[in-house]
Amino acid sequence: MSRRRPPHDPNRRKFLKSATLAGAAAVTRPAAASAQSVAPRANLKAAAPGPIQIALESSPPEKDPQTQTTSGGDFMVDVLKTLDIDYLAMNCASSFRGLHEAVINYGKNVKPEILTCNHEEIAVAMGHGYAKMEGKPLAMICHGVVGLQHATMAMYNAWCDRVPVYCIGGNILEANKRGNSTAEWVHSAVDIAAGVRDYTKWDDQPASLQHFAESAVRAYKIATTPPMGPVLLSLDAELQENPIKDAETLHIPKLSKVVPPQADSGAIAEVARLLVNAEAPLIVVDRMARTQAGMDRLVELAELLQCAVMDRFGRTNFPSRHPLNQTFRRNAVVGQADVILAIEMNDHWAALNAFHDRIVRTSQPLYKAGTKIISLGLRDMYLKANYQDFGRFSDIDMSVAGDGEATLPALIEAVKKLIDGGRKAAYEARGKRYAAARFAMLEQAKSDATIGWDSTPITTGRMCAEVYAQIKDEDWSLVGNTIGNTWPMRLWNIDKIHRWNGGSGGAGVGYNAPASLGAALANKRHGRLTVTFNGDGDLLYVPSTLWTAAHHRIPLLYIVQNNRAYHQEYMYLQAMANRHARGINNAHIGTTITDPNVDFATVARGFGVYGEGPITDPKELAPALKRAIAVVKRGEPALIDVVTDPR
Amino acid sequence: MRKVFNLFGATAMAASLCSGGLAGVARAQDVPPGDAANGKRLYLATCFVCHGRSGQGGAMNGPAPILAKTAMPFDGFKAQLRQPINEMPAYSEAVMSDQQIADVYAFLQTLPGPLPTKDMAIFKD
Ligand SMILES: Cc1ncc(C[n+]2csc(CCOP(=O)(O)OP(=O)(O)O)c2C)c(N)n1
Ligand SMILES: [Mg+2]
């Protein structure tokens, strides 16, 4: 890049004056060097003032400059543009006013375009949902101290879910530059990243614009290299605001994305041998598919082997209605398996073991003794110690480091080589058994969903059946779900990668509403009909997400599963009361959200979003859904408040 | 062997329902008379939290099974309340008497249970 240097640098005189003072100070003690004072100091010691300097020193002092023609923020925008970042989600703050202004005026508010959020947690969570749907991160920027404190839980969710979010925080590094409004002191820190370093993949605090350029590109590269995760840049306010010096020396490094690593070829051959020779091979998969191709390849592998697949739904990895999908027969398929290939697991142990939440906590494996367990994935390649998101250590016979999606093609080829005609009949017979079980499961799910069909409050089975009936002929995308709601996975035909994009990762509630909005933003350009089931408790952490939805005209149907409770905790509290034999009447205290009931339709309308409800009669659901979907198809958000039974 | 339940064990749950049904070639006289109205009151005070108001089942750490028209024999039902083997919390005598359990059992038999889905247009896909 090339940039003109301003013909006259108004700071020049001041610069020399302070350099002189610094030089004098340096005689007695080494200055805590500011970048400005370092270089000239040596000169001053070495040589007497030349004619130019004398002229400068003796001319009348200049006024403070009123304007400047460049700013570090402009250069930062240039750098961000090379990273193809579409959006900058933010809650505005003075510590990044320099970059903010550069984005809107110098950058013309495109790439990135600002998304105005009313809470930093919303900004990060939008990035979380967006990245999973779009396959690339957006950026968020916040006040480096208090804004980042708001952002932290959402960053933790993204970390646990292995999702890149490009986070930036403003800071004021030089103490002598902080103003006498207390804000600039209380909103500055030696190290803003200290509080989030345990759950960010990388962070930096650039000391110069060149340093920024390199760290900005590096941050993007690190965030998007599997296992992915959030990153943080701390940006000094003066670096953003002040004129660019040395413009001609600035260089923006090239971004070359890392090709995800395929597993070792010997290991792949061994995995293939084990799978092909197994009597009952099982594939368990969690956060594997990044693209439709990943999903298609898993189908190809499973069909070659006619083996059972269990999807943990960290992403859509395998079609829900595929005959080999045995997700809801966990005990049976894990119990029968002689070889288990677990790909890109979040919690390997939890998938294969039973645990009992009792006074004395017990557990046991679901698989039989002698079952060979193989793990394939990159999760072990980047872990940190403090937060315990890695789950319990598992018995694994063969740990293969390699990106799941990137390794599948080679694994498929290796399996193809080993399958001979002699196995075909046995494979087919086993596939038929799975297909029959899958069909029976679907019929069972439909039947189960009819229990309490006409009840008020509305059952979640009825709600999900009604929603599916309205969206199934569209290019729909479910981007959020309520806790423990398995109806979509049991009933719906989840046949494409964008039909479902996984959960929060860190189980930090307050994820769903904004992450769904981020995913809907990504879906907007693909013309998909985006829906989300949102817990009432979840929405109440971050209700102003609705304003951002309205303001940026992001089409998304919020279906509030309003059980008027933090119901998960209501159940736990009743369980605690039972342990102590303390009756059945109090577990609602502190766990329910009644008296008054929250009127979410009114809340929505207050934020400028189409709202309907509370809907208590199940017969009113279909017409309400039709009206709300019409709004969403017009390109706007809509919300319907469905008063439901607990789960 | 302990029964094992889990988040995605819905069918395992259905299977356990069936085995309950088998054991319970339950003769009507084995079931103590219960007051369904009182059972409803009790059920809607506590059991619904995990099993749903219509006995449709729910999800705590894993699924809480369907209870509408439970086919479990009364003895097994009572044993499940007194000494549940997995994650369901126990209901001790002090919290729920044998008679109250009989009342809840009676109420569960009055719930409609599933509908035939064959002719429901909503499930045609
Ligand atoms: C930030 C945060 N606070 C508290 C919790 C504990 N918690 C887990 S589930 C839950 C209830 C959430 O309510 P809602 O979204 O309405 O779902 P419901 O349980 O009612 O289905 C809470 C409070 C959490 N996981 N994260
Ligand atoms: Mg709730």
Topology at a glance:
The complex is a heterodimer of chains A (647) and B (125).
Chain A: H1 12-28, H2 35-46, H3 51-58, H4 72-82, E1 87-90, H5 97-106, E2 113-116, H6 120-134, E3 139-143, H7 146-160, E4 166-171, H8 182-186, E5 202-204, H9 209-223, E6 231-236, H10 237-241, H11 265-277, E7 281-285, H12 292-305, E8 308-311, H13 330-336, E9 339-343, H14 348-352, E10 353-356, E11 362-365, E12 372-377, E13 398-401, H15 404-418, H16 421-449, H17 460-471, E14 476-478, H18 487-491, H19 512-524, E15 529-535, H20 536-541, H21 545-551, E16 557-562, H22 567-579, H23 600-606, E17 610-615, H24 621-633, E18 638-643
Parallel strand pairs in A: 1-2, 1-3, 3-4, 4-6, 5-6, 7-8, 7-9, 9-12, 12-13, 14-15, 15-16, 16-18, 17-18
Antiparallel strand pairs in A: 10-11
Helix pairs in contact in A: 1-2, 4-5, 4-9, 6-7, 6-19, 11-15, 12-15, 17-24
Chain B: H1 10-23, H2 36-51, E1 58-59, E2 63-64, H3 74-82, H4 98-110
Antiparallel strand pairs in B: 1-2
Helix pairs in contact in B: 2-4, 3-4
The structure holds thiamine diphosphate (TPP) and magnesium ion.
Characterization of this structure:
- The complex is a heterodimer of chains A (647) and B (125).
- Chain A folds into four domains: 10-58, no CATH class; 72-249, 3-Layer(aba) Sandwich (Rossmann fold); 265-440, Rossmann fold (3-Layer(aba) Sandwich), CATH 3.40.50; 450-643, 3-Layer(aba) Sandwich (Rossmann fold), CATH 3.40.50.970.
- The model of chain A is unreliable at 1-46 (pLDDT under 50).
- In chain A, helix 7 (146-160) links the parallel strand 3 and strand 4 (166-171).
- Chain A contains 24 helices and 18 strands.
- In chain A, helix 4 (72-82) runs parallel beside helix 9, helix 6 (120-134) packs across helix 19 and helix 17 packs across helix 24 (621-633).
- With 647 residues, chain A is α/β, with parallel strands linked by helices.
- In chain A, the strands form four sheets. A six-stranded parallel beta sheet of chain A has the order 2-1-3-4-6-5, with helices on both faces. Chain A has a five-stranded parallel beta sheet with strand order 8-7-9-12-13, sandwiched between helices.
- Chain B starts with 9 loop residues before the first helix and ends in a 15-residue tail after the last helix.
- The longest helix of chain B has 16 residues, at 36-51.
- Mean pLDDT of chain B is 83; it is low at 1-27.
- Chain B is built from four helices and two strands.
- In chain B, strand 1 and strand 2 (63-64) form a beta hairpin.
- With 125 residues, chain B is mainly α.
- Chain B folds into two domains: 1-30; 33-115, Cytochrome c-like domain (Cytochrome Bc1 Complex, Chain D, domain 2, Orthogonal Bundle), CATH 1.10.760.
- A two-stranded antiparallel ribbon of chain B has the order 1-2.
- In chain B, helix 2 (36-51) crosses helix 4 and helix 3 crosses helix 4.
- The complex binds thiamine diphosphate and magnesium ion (MG).
- Magnesium ion binds next to helix 20 of chain A.
- Magnesium ion binds at residues 535-537, 563, 565-567 of chain A.
